[in-house]
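Lab notes, practical 5.
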Amino acid sequence: MQAKQVERVESESSVSKVSTWRIIAPIGLVAVVVAVAAISGILPRSQQRESWAAEAKELSVPTVTVISPKNGALADRLNHPAEIKPVNEAVIYARANGYVKRLLVDLGDRVKAGQLLAEIDTPEL
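Output from the prediction step:
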């Protein structure tokens, strides 16, 4: 009976060796495939990150050209229609009735306080 047990133990150990390899081999193959896939994905990403970092560093520092201003003539002149209105308006009345004999200033002229603007002819006085 011991011979049968020895054979059974030997046959069980050979079966267990075969079944162990049947389990380990696919797991190992899957592990190798996953490792290769990870490495093939990680390396290009790290290289791409390095190139992005270099590009970001290059773009982060703006290049500015500085010049000093100079006095000079205007190259272009712009003419646009406009209307200028004063801050304060005043209506001017003559102290006496009559006709304008002489107009001493024109529209748009600069005047000073107390300056004579017009002479009025009063036939009744």
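Observations recorded by the TA: Helices lie at 2-60. The longest helix spans residues 2-60.
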